[in-house]
Specification:
Layout lengths: L12 H9 L3 H9 L3 H9 L3 H10 L5 H7 L2 H8 L4 H8 L4 H8 L4 H9 L3 H10 L17 E3 L4 H11 L8 E5 L5 E6 H6 L17 E2 L4 H11 L3 E5 L5 E6 H18 L13 H28 L1 H6 L2 H30 L7 H31 L2 H31 L4 H28 L2
Parallel strand pairs: 1-2, 4-5
Antiparallel strand pairs: 2-3, 5-6
Amino acid sequence: MSTETTISYEIRQDDVIEFYKTGQFERLDELLRTSHPADLASLIEGLPREIRTPIWERIPKEYDGEVLVELSEEVRSSLVADMDPEELAQAAQDLDADDLIELLEPLSDETSQSIIDSLDDAVRVQFESNMQFDDDDAGRLMRYDAIVVKAGVTLEVVQRFLRRKGELPDHTDCLMVIDADGEFIGVLKLEQLLLKPIDTLVDEIILRDFDTVGARWHEDDVARLFERHDLISVPVLDEQGSLLGRITIDDVVDIIREQADEALFARVGMDGEEDLFAPAVSSAKRRAVWLGINLLTAILAAWVIDVFSGTIEQLVALAVLMPIVASMGGISGSQTLTLTIRGISTGQLHGSNVFALLRKEVSVGLFNGLLWACAIGLLAMVWFSDLALGLVIAAAIALNLSIASLAGVSIPLLLKKFGSDPALSGAVILTTVTDVVGFLSFLGLATLFLI
């Protein structure tokens, strides 16, 4: 976005609310006008719903498109629902093809088509090209502003060409190089362009083994490539190796942030796109499903306890010590589960090293199981003056921690194999396993040796 105004990269939510509530609209408008679109999006998401719309309506219209694509899907949908098609069309005019998809996907077909029809021909063609790819394909992230030069010209020619253009696209660290037939053959780094003699031919200094991605690559693989190789931009090629466009670091940062949000919220059965100030009823409905699932797993653990209710009645110490067994197993299993899910998400865990990880984690579980079995067994023996009780809880701890480590590796791998997200349901299943195994082993051993 180009503007004459000096952009501020900080905006205090308290200031915005105070200016609005006290009627200081000139100061409010100035603050909004000099704020970065990304900061405005963060501000909008953090405002209570009763003042969100009035503040949104005061944001300069030329910022609308960039602010909308920075918002979470639920907040964006709530604002877009109140906008006229003409407003939406205006907001879409200055957006790249990849950002247009974010804006238009939640809209009705009729509204989307009217906005698409209003676009410049070049932008519309780029948008339709991106839409040919699946949601998670690299092709959806492409932008078409890469600067392309021919291999047979000198650096002086390239420099004159760039001076005529007047400016470089954002995040340009290299130029795309094609041969006489128009085929992509490599990239020309900007530092080479600036530092080499001007009579040097482009094809003498291009990087021919530069990283590229396929248009059908999954966006997670693209993010991993950027992370590992510290890339700023990367060419996108079709199946024949022809240049289609490029992906830049700003889009990859968005992917990484979304992945982190999804993983965080998935652990408690929530949607990372949920509006912070969504209506209580809709939020309650979403979370009720997860609470119901958790209730079923809790009932299963309670049923195991009920089976041994007679044992517990005869030895009250068991009721005191049961939470220790379940909690230790849960923590141990969660550590392994987190490590395994990270390995899956980064691509480090695959078929050839699964059993190595399994052996290692079970060994860790067994070691910690024996270590803490001794400590907790000794504590129980001293606490209740009962050697047999100490040995029983020690055995239960050792068994539960070993099983927890095994489950921490196995559960996410099985979920992934059957097409489910390990981050979404892995923790619930693991908790069920460690609770049931912990209670069953502790109470079962107590029934056999103490009663």
